[in-house]
């Protein structure tokens, strides 16, 4: 079949079914913090949707899940417009796909600049994306990602997380900067939290990601305050008066301001080094502070990031490699998720 062949009735019906399923599962995951299926099952349905669209581009609409960032701001929280849009990440599920992606991106950068890019490699933290807005060094607002344009105001809840400074350390801060990162529950804290739940006669949480998301999206910040939430920052949105040249250089600046930066990131020159990073963390993924669901590779140079730009859903200068699921334990999902 050529990519523009007319979809059959059966394909149209399957497509509509997939869109409904993905939207339903996204709503449960992002809005209720209570997934109905495993991530691996969700990723399979999403890939099937992408493949049908690649085969029949006429099926794609602007509101297709492949064109939008998942999650809607709940009416339980005040809506917050992000100053700069928040994106998702392009996923690849095999090393061959990753290599092809990196070669393509390196080729296009080399054509433009004469040299291949340096790669910033990081762990893909399995947490909840949060946007922190600092004005003159003071945290004035915190919000969830939502649909990427509008998130939920969780400023009071974020104020209970000790990793996140209310006031940046030092001086000479930019007038305005949006700092993005992942809120998570560290593996050892999660184990203690679940022991406490069981000791109190309550159902344990299904996994750290959903308990972190549920803990942060509480109406009562006092509940959030009792949960062991941590954060690592991994990106910048709007910036006014912040002049850095690389993503890694930005991290070091953020660190000097007292923001929590992951200890695991590396700047690498070659593709084999990136592959080694992935193999090494694939082996040691359970020896880390937090759970991961993959590795993120970013072009380190910010000017090159700007040149490569974004699609409506993802940056073109970054890719997420997802490790194969270790074991799909759908039983866990039967446990009522506590929030
Ligand atoms: P994603 O989780 O694949 O990647 C994007 C997000 O990764 C970013 O928004 C960012 O917050 C986060 N991230 C973590 N570490 C990062 C780092 N070092 N650098 C940059 N970003 C980092 O995409 P998504 O759109 O948030 O969610 C899709 C994924 O969520 C699916 O692949 C699936 O695994 C899961 N999901 C599961 C269900 C379910 O029902 N189980 C439903 C919806 C989504």
TrEMBL record:
NAD(+) binds at residues 39-43, 88-89, 122, 145, 182, 298, 322. It comes from the Bacteria. The active site is at residue 124. Belongs to the NAD-dependent DNA ligase family. LigA subfamily. DNA ligase that catalyzes the formation of phosphodiester linkages between 5'-phosphoryl and 3'-hydroxyl groups in double-stranded DNA using NAD as a coenzyme and as the energy source for the reaction. It is essential for DNA replication and repair of damaged DNA. This is DNA ligase. It comes from Arthrobacter alpinus.
């Amino acid at each position: 079949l050529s990519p523009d062949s007319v979809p059959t009735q059966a394909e149209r019906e399957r497509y509509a079914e997939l869109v409904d399923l993905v939207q339903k599962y996204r709503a449960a995951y992002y809005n209720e913090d209570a997934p109905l299926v495993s991530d691996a099952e969700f990723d399979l349905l999403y890939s099937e949707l992408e493949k049908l669209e690649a085969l029949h581009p006429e099926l794609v609409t602007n509101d297709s899940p492949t064109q939008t960032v998942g999650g809607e701001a709940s009416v339980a929280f005040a809506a917050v417009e992000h100053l700069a849009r928040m994106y998702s990440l392009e996923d690849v599920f095999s090393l061959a796909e990753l290599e092809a992606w990196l070669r393509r991106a390196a080729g296009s950068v080399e054509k433009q600049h004469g040299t291949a890019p340096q790669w910033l490699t990081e762990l893909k933290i399995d947490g909840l994306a949060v946007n922190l807005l600092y004005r003159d060094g003071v945290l004035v607002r915190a919000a969830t990602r939502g649909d990427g344009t509008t998130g939920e105001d969780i400023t009071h809840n974020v104020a209970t997380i000790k990793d996140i400074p209310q006031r940046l350390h030092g001086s000479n801060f930019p007038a305005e900067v949006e700092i993005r990162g992942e809120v998570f529950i560290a593996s050892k804290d999660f184990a203690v939290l679940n022991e406490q739940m069981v000791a109190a006669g309550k159902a344990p949480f299904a996994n750290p990601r959903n308990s972190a998301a549920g803990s942060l999206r509480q109406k009562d910040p006092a509940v959030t305050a009792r949960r062991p939430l941590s954060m690592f920052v991994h990106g910048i949105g709007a910036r006014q008066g912040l002049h850095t040249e690389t993503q890694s250089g930005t991290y070091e600046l953020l660190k000097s301001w007292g923001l929590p930066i992951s200890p695991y990131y590396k700047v690498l020159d070659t593709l084999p080094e990136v592959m080694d990073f992935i193999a090494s963390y694939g082996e040691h993924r359970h020896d880390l502070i937090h759970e991961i669901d993959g590795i993120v590779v970013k072009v380190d140079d910010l000017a090159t990031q700007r040149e490569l730009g974004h699609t409506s859903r993802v940056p073109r200068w970054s890719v997420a490699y997802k490790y194969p699921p270790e074991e799909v334990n759908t039983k866990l999902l039967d446990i009522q998720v506590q929030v």
